[in-house]
Structures
1.
Amino acid sequence: MRVNEIFYSLQGEGRFTGTPVVFLRLSGCNLKCSFCDTKHEEAVEMHPTEIIEEIQKYPSKHIVITGGEPSLQIDWDFVNYLQQYGYFVQVETNGVKRLPTNVDWITCSPKYKPICYGEVDEIKCVYEGKESEEKIHKLYRSVRAESFYLQPCDVKNPKRNAEILAECINFIKENPEWKLSLQTQKILEVR
Ligand code: SF4
């Protein structure tokens, strides 16, 4: 398995915000988003036994597999292996390719490609400005989820970021099926 990094922190986004979790970030993705934070070229090959050994150094039994795109690498046996050690397995996916059916919690963060799911646990959608609102409405109509989160896009420009946040808040006030999700790990400057 090509691993970008393993680290322990608080989940900064979505339903489990504030929960201590072990992050397993895998390398490689099937999309190329302009705002991607992952350095996909950095990877270490790790066997599942080495991954278990590493994640057990931390007290939390909640693991978040993120990317890159986890659906390119994880399978039913790997998820089951983690669950046998008592882990609650949350996976963050762009939704283009299906995940193993035994994942405990699917956080789908669709990008500019259609997703292959009719139902997930939570949707976390990047709000890029008013031009993305039609796409967001369509997404809401096409998939079921327990919670729908909008996350203002960080375009690395403080002035534009402030405008995007204000537009996002207005959109949510007019469309209360959505909730705001901030990248609290960036705001608090924690990993
Ligand atoms: S889907 Fe996610 S990991 Fe893949 S390129 Fe886009 S932001 Fe990066």
2.
Amino acid sequence: MANYETQIVVIAGGPSGLSAAVQAAEDGAEVILLEKAAAVGGAANMGMGPLGIGTRYQKQQMIEISVEKAFNMFMEYTHYNVDARLVKRYFEQSAETIEWLEDMGVEFEGAYRYFPKSEATWHIVKTDQGIGPRAASFMNRALYARAQELGVKVLLETAARKIVMEEGKVAGVLGTDKDGNEIEIACKAAIICTGGAGCNKDFIKEETGYIHGVDMFNFAIPGIMGDGLKMAWEAGADHLPVRIEQAANIEGIDDLPGSVANVMGQPNLLVNTHGKRVMNEEHMQNTTFLSNVCSHQKDRVCFSLVDSSIVKYYMRNGVDHVCLVRPDPDVSDFAEGVKMAQENGNEGLFIADSIEELAEKAGIDVDTLADTVEEYNDFCDSVDEEFFKNKKYLRPLIKAPFYGARIRPGGYGTVGGIRINENCEACDKDFEPVTGLYAAGADACNIYDDSYMFLLPGNSMGFAVNTGRIAGMSAAEFVED
Ligand SMILES: Cc1cc2nc3c(=O)[nH]c(=O)nc-3n(C[C@H](O)[C@H](O)[C@H](O)COP(=O)(O)OP(=O)(O)OC[C@H]3O[C@@H](n4cnc5c(N)ncnc54)[C@H](O)[C@@H]3O)c2cc1C
């Protein structure tokens, strides 16, 4: 067994862990960071950037958003079912965190909305290839470089296994290195940042009831197995509900051509297996809302339906809702894309020469869907009496071939599980801090239940970076005493 000694062990090197390590080291603490994977960054290597409120980008772009406005929006959105002190501290710190990141070399494209009705709080990281997925890996790289500059000892391919507690206080962390050797690090404080349990099907089923790959399709980043949650609970932290961070997905989206994902994600007619409409489709763009809607249907599934005239409209005029994650608006290869995806084994896409045939192929009630389409087509000539959809999105389904895509609940991973307070101290059932134990990021993200607050985008990575910093500050202060 290899033995080390330090003041603070940070468990994991995603954005929360990296931020915790950098902040603690900047505050003068000696830090060792353990990361299970061969590289740092975690799930955030796939994302685009964190939330910031009241930043210089927003001022330059004349975007009116203040901590007060965001805080009030957030409290209403969560029905006040949240730790207001933690939310306030996180939002209040978020603008300074953007500057903190810039000081270590991170550049931002600016502040963006996720969709028109959201606020422009999403600070997309600048890359060498413009705006797009994985931009935040540039941020993680800068955090890692800063951690190394500050002397943080980073052990890659080294998984933490257990928090050693002595007399109710953190006394060390046990882990396993890349050669399978046991390591023990004596320390006064540990910060848990392992990103939830998005890759652990059994854990997800037990904690949330969803079956990954059957009625829910979340991103399952390898290695994110709930290790930190289990370690924290074992060390005495309170076990709060673990949720799926809801964001709906078109079934098999990872293998779909961009044009298919783009068209099927538009505010098209959306029905359930009964053939009934389920929402005002103009809100589909908020994929959390869409995911919740899908979760409430039989078999947790909905269907986005278009006809050839609607596809032609999108080709000619562009799609209604532009998505920065899939920024290419060209959908001219849609029909070929659907066929190609089907040939590649996608069973969630359907093509038919009539609405009845489409219903049969997709497993939707045939008669009801025919009635629904007839009624919807009538609304397109007048108003949507059913769900009040804006007229500009109402287009009739009249021309074959007709297309359908299954939409499922999905998620970025899991959120929540470890009770923390506004100082990111892990707390027990009596709300008392477990001495020396801290948590940040997805493991401790109990602030919006399962309904990711897309109205303030960047909220997930923003929470990770900011709670990481808060945990780092608190732990550094604790070990100094
Ligand atoms: C496709 C995608 C796009 C996204 N885009 C955005 C976005 O643009 N903006 C936004 O706000 N959010 C976004 N998110 C969500 C965001 O990435 C997460 O909220 C954020 O990464 C959580 O940070 P974290 O540090 O808590 O965990 P993670 O980033 O998940 O990192 C956890 C780390 O823990 C390590 N680990 C696990 N177990 C152990 C162990 N036992 N010992 C040591 N290490 C361990 C893992 O290897 C991993 O590196 C996106 C997520 C996905 C999947």
